[in-house]
What does this fold into?
Amino acid sequence: MSKFLKKVGNFQANVGRMDASFGVISAYIFLALAIIASIVAVVYALIPMKPFGCDDNFPDPTGECKKKVRHYGLFWVLLIIPVAILIVYLSKTWKTAVDSNKSLAQLDGTFAEANMVKQFLQN
It folds into this structure.
């Protein structure tokens, strides 16, 4: 029986290591998307456009919608990049911890499998 439990434990550890690897890959994908979104937002912030909230179907008594303005508020999107870098750092730290500790890898594998079962049962 102990041989069987050892095989199950090794399987759980391998699942945990793969889950941590997928977490790192997902973090890098999020970082790439965050950089692309930030570049698009900066470009939109620098190009003069109509103010937000202006609609051609409604009259504009103040004439505010005729002026083109830059939307500097879109620069807040740049804060996504440090958050994404932090997520990459944390996921790489987690992967290092999982790769060096079999018990942690087994725990991660168990939670990953429980999450898969939960998602399967919800659909």
